[in-house]
Amino acid sequence: MTEWQLTETFHSAAGEVRWGSLGRPDGDPVVLLHGTPFSSYVWRDIAHALAGHHQVFVWDMPGYGASEKSAGQDVSLAVQSRIFSQLLEHWGLDEPLVVAHDFGGAVSLRAHLLHGALYRALALVDPVALAPWGSPFFRLVGEQSEVFEQLPPALHRALVREYVSSASSPGLHPTVLDQLVRPWLGDPGQGAFYRQIAQADQRYTDEVQERYGEIAVPTLVCWGEDDTWIPVARGRELAARIPDARFEPIAGAGHLVQEDAPARLTALLLDFLRQPR
After folding, report:
1. Which domain of life does the protein's organism represent (predicted)?
2. Do strands 28-33 and 121-125 pair parallel, antiparallel, or not at all (unpaired)?
3. How many other CB atoms are found less than 10 A from the CB of residue 52?
């Protein structure tokens, strides 16, 4: 497995954000956004592939991965989209190429439509973007997060492993599963896991859903055909709402397309990001 470490720190209002960059300093910048309950680790192989032609920026959102996790922390979509806009300014990126997965898709859409973040192109991978969203499990945990926070560590670990595993169609390599679960274990990881679910609120996508027709940048929507978290029909609907968006279903992939079909996704992204604008 590719070693993955974020070496830089950005001090945000929601806590320290860990980030990193790789690839050619003179290459077109690409920013990768992860979803929930994941981290930038899910982009490791694709980031290295893109780095052959681009300067690639990756980051862990506050409350996720290697970034700060703390009691009472605001990790809502509202905060994450503002922090993303601030990070783009911190990096000096005026119109980067943006690739966003799951919850990160909502972050990129809100930053663009509400905070004026400009992109050269936008690729969305199984994003959280349209109502209704949230599985019955997700809603249950959100409503009872304080109860779930009290689970014995062994039960919590088993719950998180099962939940993360369900994002993959063929199944995750054990080492990958361990890496994805590790940030949510112990203190402060266990509390952070339930905190980010408790703060997930559909109103943050409701605020922008009717504005997707305003998106004027080239847009690619990729979707795992076997996604059990967000059905592929939602991807087709999203692509239809964005003018001239290109829709690409990916066979054999679940919600974690980066793990289930990395070669196919990388090929699609390289082709899309290389196209003249």
Report:
1. Bacteria
2. unpaired
3. 11
Q: Could you tell me whether strands 28-33 and 54-59 are parallel, antiparallel, or unpaired per DSSP bridges?
A: parallel
pTM value is 0.97
| Cα 7–chain centre separation | 19
Cα separation, 227 vs 224, in Å, equals 5
Average pLDDT on 153-175 reads 97
Task: For residue 143, give Cα distances in angstroms to 74, 130, 149, 195.
Answer: 17, 21, 12, 11
- Angle, to 10 degrees, between the axis of helix 77-91 and the axis of helix 103-114? 70
Which residues, other chains included, contact 276 with Cβ-Cβ below 8 Å and sequence gap of 6+?
none
Interacting residues of 175 by C-beta distance below 8 A, sequence separation 6+? 1
d(CA 97, CA 241): 20
Residue 26 has pLDDT above 70, yes or no: yes
The radius of gyration computed from the CA coordinates of the chain, to the nearest angstrom, equals 17
> Domain limits of the chain?
8-273
d(CA 223, CA 255): 8
The class (CATH top level) of 8-273 is: alpha beta
Tell whether the model's pLDDT for residue 53 goes beyond 60. Answer: yes
